[in-house]
Amino acid sequence: MIGTGVLVRLALRRDRLLLPIWILVIVAIPVSIASAIAELYPDVGQRLALGATMMANPALQALTGPIFDPASVGGLTAWRATTFAAVLAGLMSIMLVTRHTRAEEESGRAELIGAAPVGRYALPAAAVIVTGLANLLAALLLVAGLAGQGLPLAGSIAFAGAVAGMGLVFTGIAAVTAQLTANARTANALAVAVLGLFFLLRSAGDASGAEAVSWLSPLGWAQRIRAFAGERWWLLAGFAAVAVLLVAAADLLARRRDIGAGLLAARRGPAAASASLRSPLALAWRLQRGMLFGWAAGFAVVGGVFGALAASVGDIVEDIPQIADMLARLGGAGVLVDTFFATQLGLFALVASGYAVQAASRPRAEETIGRAEPVLAASVPRWRWLAGHVACALAGSALILLIAGLAAGLAHGLRVGEPATQATRIAGAALAQVPAVWVVAGITVLLFGLLPRMTAVAWAFLVAFFLLGQLGELLQIDETIRQFSPFAHVPALPGGTATATPIARLCLATGVLIVAGVAGFGRRDLKAD
Question: What are the angstrom distances between the C-alpha of 131 and each of 239, 240, 351?
Fold first, then answer.
């Protein structure tokens, strides 16, 4: 297709900073986990004991999946890292495809490119090629990294293939969602919602032992390739076939629409704005409410699922007398349930930070596509316009965590006969995580105000906080370094002790970051780099 090679080089140049970060994180997590497991569990007996403990807990299987070979370092690495690496590969693919297809059309750059001697479908072809190359490079580096840790080459190839296969499937899914809507954020949200659904299906299937449910999700396929545990190579062909079919479907859909339009027609608005749309905050709410509703629905479903699983966490004590005795001294199986909730709420907070980054990044999108300038050309002060989006980011992230806590507490309460008590308790624990999420939003606002071109680097901060919090102990990262994550300073609720000092410090840090970002935005030119 004419011009595809030039557009591939252009896309690689535009992503020369963010793309290496994505690939580095996708590769670093499994390789670091393999190294840590080999060091922490050098004996087969230790690894078998760890595997038995993990497999006795359905709630942990819901998070990471089953262990197919607990005796080997490779088997434990695949259990611990497959889901995380595959989800990251899916997210990378979604962001890349949407950035180089729908976002280009929304900004008007696709029309300018189309005026040159370039094929009409060169732009989406270039996006698919770049994303495919990114997944291929990540796979090659994974093979080199895992094999370099002394793991079997066949298992390393299977693991890398599972991660890259997930990335290729979501390359196709993002290519399809980019044809459905005229808005890049909506296309991203649809693709991420599909990823969340697949995660939920895999979690529910693995936790309940319903294999058929897990097989409905590509994340389930990635687990069941059984890297380092008797590889199922034919599943790699399944990933490739699904990816090809999705890309072909996206091509057919692209032929049925005009450039800049989506197959799902936007609803016409009224000729005159209502009174509720005549302020910067109301405008920000109108622009962001669809995304918030989607996130809230997802958190309600996932929170309810994990809440329903929480009661089964205590079942582990029936088969492991040592843990039963320890828990009896600490206060019973309820301690384990509280620990499970504290862990899951910490994970929910990290995911909710993704919403905070998206919402706080919306002003940058409005600025780059030219919608901010007409608003600010009127009597609207810059700080009020930006404050509306910041308010949506802060209030929205608190709301989705509250919804997740209420859903989890209600589902757990219905199982133990205390729906009101548990819903209130778990919702309060979820709200305790909010100040850490707000710090991530504050970082995004600061980058937008001072270094607008680097606004997307807020995602790198979020990934770093994830690594420090979720994998810091396993990777034996120094405690001093782990304290750089705001999530290290929130109380471990329920079950822990809450103090006002760390929460007040996080809120103060958020305020400083936001004020600095707003001040920087007030002093720079629009569309500045």
Answer: 15, 14, 23
Closest by Cα among 369, 357, 349 to 106 = 369
d(C-alpha 452, C-alpha 364), whole Å: 7
State how far the Cα of 416 lies from the Cα of 408, in Å rounded to an integer.
Answer: 12
Model pTM score: 0.77
Helices (H), ranges, 41-152 = 44-55, 58-64, 73-100, 102-107, 109-114, 122-148
Residue 505 has pLDDT above 90, yes or no: yes
Distance (Å, whole) CA 73 – CA 81: 12
- Cis preceding linkage at 42, omega within 30: no
Angstrom CA distances, 401 to 292, 434, 469, stand at 12, 7, 18
Is the CB of residue 459 less than 8 Å from the CB of residue 374?
Answer: no
Residue linked to tokens 């384990």: 336
- Residue 308 pLDDT > 90, yes or no? no
State the pLDDT confidence band at 17, using cuts at 50, 70 and 90: confident
Nearest to 231 by CA among 172, 168, 165: 165
- Tokens 């600025």, residue located: 367
Tell me what percent of the residues of the chain surpass a pLDDT of 90: 34
Q: Are 478 and 462 in contact (CB under 8 A)?
A: no
- The 10s digit of each residue's pLDDT in 43-91 is 888 888 878 777 766 666 777 788 898 889 999 899 888 988 999 999 9
